[in-house]
Write a structure and sequence with these properties.
Layout lengths: L1 H15 L30 H10 L3 E6 L6 H11 L6 E7 L2 E6 L2 H9 L4 E2 L2 E7 L13 E9 L8 H8 L4 E5 L11 E9 L7 E6 L2 E6 L1
Antiparallel strand pairs: 1-3, 1-5, 2-3, 4-5, 6-8, 7-8, 9-10
InterPro entries: At4g02000-like, DUF4283
Pfam families: DUF4283
Organism: Dendrobium nobile (Orchid)
Amino acid sequence: MIEKLSEKIEDNSKMSNPWSNKPYIKLNFKREEVVLSKDGKAVSLDESAEVLNAKWLEHSLVAKVFGKDILSHLVAWELRRQWAHYGQFHFTTLGMGWYLCSFKTLEAMEGVLSGGPWFVNNHIVGMERWSMEFSPSSMKGLTSPIWIRMPQLPLHCWDEKNVAMIASMVGDPLMLDGNMFQWGRREFARVCVRMELDKPLPLGVWVEGLGGRFFKKN
């Protein structure tokens, strides 16, 4: 009994040891190969390695679920379910609620980016194409398609071009609700825009035309 207990303690100690059973990679590091910036205050990265890494990420999106924290495996399962028709993709947890979704083709990545809006457990998913400027500590550049309403829009503004121009003050117009052009109902215009999620939604937009200037609430 004592022997078995000691074996168990030994096994547990091995499991808790961060240096055991790890696929470590032996480095052939040479101090003389380190290059510093001109002012000597920064390490200069290996440009060829940077380019190669960026090449692997050219079909990748960075995504973040807003609202309540959701377990990463649940996020992965839900996104794979919703994006199944775009093909397989690699899901990587980046920390701080961020995820990297790497697709096999540019078409699949752009299909996901231009589709949506996407939700996980009723929480909106913000996303953007990966770039070297991406930082997990910032939401700058993170966008999502969002539907906005324009109630009581003057009838002389009720056309695709003018509605899109008004909506462009909120985000990049993507599509219009085709039902808004039916004469039986014109209570509000409905537009889908791609909006930067680090910026607040404006209360409205000032508009000027033949009928004068007016404030259009969102």
